[in-house]
Amino acid sequence: MNALTFPPLRLTDPAMFGRVGVLLGGTSSERNVSLDSGRNVIEALRSRGVDAIAVDGIPALALALVEKRFDRVFNILHGHNGGGEDGIVQGLMEAFGVPYTGSDVLGSALSMDKIRTKQVWLSHGLPTPRFIALDQASDVHAAAAELGLPVVVKPANEGSSVGISRVVEEAGLDEAVALAVRYDGQLLMEQMVVGDELTVAILGDQALPSIRIVPKGQWYDYNAKYIAEDTQYLCPGLEGEDEIEIRRLALAAFRAAGCRGWGRVDVMRDRSSGRFYLLEVNTAPGMTSHSLVPKSASQAGIGFEELVWRVLEQTLPGHAAQEHSHA
C-alpha cells in the first residue's frame, strides 16, 4: 500500500525559482497557525538555497505584487477573512500573473464553503453526512430533530476546528449556535458520525497514506490539533482494501471540488457500518510540527524539505497540478 512512486524533481537549481514570497499570517482566526507554518516553510526553502521571504497578510501581498518583489508565491495563509484559502488572494495573484501554490480561485472559494462543497460532492455521488444549512432565522431545534441527535454545529466558512460544537443532547443546541454565530456566514448542522477520524493528504495527482487521528480526549478539537502532545497519529490509518478505498475517495473529493496541487481531505469512518463520509477539504493545510500532511508525506518517503520543494514546483509552467484544476 505504501509503494507510491513520485516523479523525479523537476528542478535541482534553487535559483530557477527566483525570489519566492511565502504568504503567511494574515488576519483570519487561524493567524497563529499560519505564522508557525510559514516559518517552517521558509526555513525548509532556505535550507535548500531558495531565496524565500515572508509576506504577512493580503495588504502586504498586494504592495509586493505592485512592486514586483517576487517571482512566485508559496501560499501558507490559512482560513478566510484575511486568510488565503477563500479565493481572494488567488484572484489577486491571477490578476498580476504571479504563479502560486495550491488551488485556484474556484477550488479555494468552493472548499472554504463547507455547505456548497457538500452539495457538489452529492452531485458527484460522493458520501457526506446529512446536513442542514442554517441562518439566523432557522429553528435549530427543528433541524436537530430532523437530522437526529447527535449533531455537529459549525460555521460553514471556518477551519482548524474553530467554532465547532458536538451536541449530544438538545439542551446543548443553543449554546452551540451562540458559539458558531460569532463567525460570519451561514451555519452548518450535520449528523455526527461516530467512529474514526481520518485525513488524507493530496500531493499532485496522488493521495498519500491516510492518517487515523486518536486524541487523548473524546474529540479532535483545536487543543488536540495544535497544543496537546498526547494526540496519536496512526499512518497509514487503515489497511488493505479500506486504505485503497479511502485514498480513492479523497482524491475524487479533491478533484470534484475543483482543487489542485496539494491539500488535505478530512474523512469520518462510521464505526457501526464501516462507511466513509467526507467532511471537508483544506486547500492550504498546516505545516507545523503537529501538522498532518508532513506526517503522511514522511510515511510515503518524502521528508519535509522535499515536500515543500515539490509543492513549490507546482508553480512552474506546464505542471500537472495546474492542469488538474477542473478534472
UniProtKB/TrEMBL annotation:
The pathway is:
Glycan biosynthesis; Cell wall biogenesis; peptidoglycan biosynthesis
Residues of the active site: E30, S160, S291
Tree of life domain:
Bacteria
Where in the cell is the protein located?
A: Cytoplasm
Q: Which residues bind Mg(2+) 1?
A: D266, E280
**Which reaction equations make up its catalytic activity?**
2 D-alanine + ATP = D-alanyl-D-alanine + ADP + phosphate + H(+)
- One GO term (biological process): regulation of cell shape
* Swiss-Prot/TrEMBL cofactor(s): Mn(2+); Mg(2+)
Cofactor stoichiometry and binding remark: Binds 2 magnesium or manganese ions per subunit.
> Which GO molecular function, any one, fits this protein according to its record?
ATP binding
- Cytoplasm as a keyword? yes
What role does this protein play?
Answer: Cell wall formation.
| Designated name of the protein | D-alanine--D-alanine ligase
Lineage runs: Bacteria, Pseudomonadati, Pseudomonadota, Gammaproteobacteria, Lysobacterales
